[in-house]
Design goal:
This protein has about 110 residues and is mainly alpha-helical. Helices cover about 60% and strands about 5% of the residues. The chain has a two-stranded antiparallel sheet. Helix 1 (about 5-15) packs across helix 4 (about 55-70).
């Protein structure tokens, strides 16, 4: 319903923490785990609330991740997988992905 809620959900759906929590539920294909989109909603994801600091912190971290990702200069003709790795590496170097994963662990553990 809001940009902050969108950032909150983007943080969850793009996090390594969420991926790890559902990997055992994913079908395996020739190139590894598949169908993340079919199992991610089995996670206990609370509805977004601006009243909860954890939810606001996740939205802020995702907004920071979006801004940093937008600044990454991708080589001409770069393939999707390489572009994704370049962005993930930049987010890890900045400490943003680790912060998001810690926040999501708290969220999903109910802490």
């Amino acid at each position: 319903a809001t940009e902050n809620e969108g950032h909150y959900l983007a943080a969850i759906f793009n996090s390594e923490a969420a991926r790890k929590r559902v990997e055992t539920l994913q079908a395996r294909g020739q190139w590894g785990a598949r169908h993340f989109d079919k199992v991610v909603l089995t996670l206990p994801i609370p509805l977004f609330s601006t009243k909860l600091a954890l939810h606001r912190d996740l939205a802020i971290a995702a907004s920071e991740a979006e801004k940093l990702a937008a600044q990454i200069v991708l080589p001409e003709g770069v393939k999707f997988q390489r572009a994704r790795k370049l962005i993930r590496d930049a987010l890890a170097e900045a400490g943003i992905s680790q912060r998001i994963d810690r926040l999501i662990a708290r969220l999903l553990d109910g802490k």
